[in-house]
Amino acid sequence: MSLEASDEHALLLRMVQQHLDSLRRAGVDRIPAPPVIPPRTRAIHLRSAPVEVPNEPVLPPPIVAPPPAVVPPIPTATPASSLFGSSGFDTPAPPPSERPALLAELRAEVAQCTRCPHLAATRTQTVFGTGSPTARLFFVGEAPGGDEDRLGEPFVGRAGALLTDMITKGMGLTREEVYIANVLKSRPPENRTPLPDEVGHCLPFLERQIAIIRPQYLCLLGRTAASALLDTALSLARLRGRWHNYRGIPAIVTYHPSYLLRYPEEKKKAWEDLQMLMQAMGLKVPKRPKA
Ligand code: SF4
User: Fold this and answer.
1) Which positions ≥6 away from 214 have C-beta within 8 Å?
2) Is residue 119 within 6 Å of ligand 1 at its C-beta?
3) Rounded to the nearest 10 degrees, how much is the dihedral formed by the CA atoms of 241, 245, 250, 254?
4) Which of 183, 185, 208 is the pocket-test mutation for ligand 1 (most atoms within 8 Å of CB)?
């Protein structure tokens, strides 16, 4: 210890001694011991060196499993009448009691029609349609022929006889139970195929007939009827044998009876089409149509 340190130490002792003497003179005979601070508490008061704490690791966002994909149910064998959902008509179906008067009104309008001047000038009369105003099944042909023009009723010639057989012997129905009409209401000269503008002029009449009757099924006979109502240019071979949709009404396409008279070997396919229709309508399908 150096001399200066020894002097300071002696001075410090003398000051402590003087302080103790003054306390004693003031009546203080003991000095309480300093409180014992537990190490852990004391550590809180101590300033410790900064500790480097490693950053929290940045984890990638958790992978959330995507919700299971919604797989549409596979359609099962569904009755054809429910295949096409809601009605595609602008107006509700008229009550059955009002349909005869509505058809009579439309028939009178058609009888005065001259939208196709040449057809109006050459026809004997218009051929509107025949059958039940509440028919479940509506047959649509092409145009009146010579017999129809003369008698004013659709499908009354040889082709009409074959259609009647298809309805009665094949399907077990009567002509009175179904409805039968053509796309054109006036006969084209020489029974030629209707021209596109003639179809365009007359199709609204057929559409109004269908809107009044609201059949559950349509059977479109030949390409003219199919292309007019289904708005398609596909061949009849591509159209037959499957269901189509006209404003929510299930429709099948098959050969026109006139074609079947020329090509009787195709009757088998027409019978297959009718069987498809009968199954959908809940009609009993015989193994072979009655002769
Ligand atoms: S075919 Fe139809 S649109 Fe043409 S004149 Fe006859 S009724 Fe009228």
Assistant:
1) 89, 93, 94, 249
2) yes
3) -30
4) 185
Contact 81, 278 (CB under 8 A): no
Indicate the Cα dihedral angle 283, 239, 88, 83, nearest 10°: 50
Q: State the pLDDT confidence band at 291, using cuts at 50, 70 and 90.
A: low
Domain ranges within the chain, ordered by starting residue: 97-281
Assess whether the C-beta atom of 151 lies below 6 angstroms from ligand 1. no
Buried b (16+ CB within 10 A) or exposed e, 170-183: bbebebebbbbbbb
Fold of 97-281: Uracil-DNA Glycosylase, subunit E (3.40.470)
Question: What pLDDT digit, counting tens, does each position of 177-222 carry?
Answer: 999 999 999 999 999 999 999 999 999 999 999 999 999 999 999 9
How far apart CA 121 and CA 105 sit, in angstroms, is 22
Give strand pairing partners of 251: 218, 244
Left (φ > 0), alpha (ψ -120 to 50) or beta: where does 172 sit? left
- Cα torsion at 87, 244, 140, 184 (round to 10°)? 90
82-85-90 Cα angle (round to 5):
130
* Residue 288: burial class (beta carbons within 10 Å; 0-12, 13-18, 19+): exposed
- Which positions ≥6 away from 11 have C-beta within 8 Å? none
150-162 confidence digits (pLDDT tens)? 999 999 999 999 9
The answer, yes or no, to whether any atom of ligand 1 lies below 6 A from the CB of 198, is yes
Kindly indicate the confidence band of residue 60, based on its pLDDT and cuts at 50, 70 and 90. Answer: very low
For residues 48 and 286, the model is more confident at 286
Residues paired with residue 140 on neighbouring β-strands, in sequence order: 181, 220
The response to whether residue 244 sits with its C-beta less than 6 Å from ligand 1 reads: no
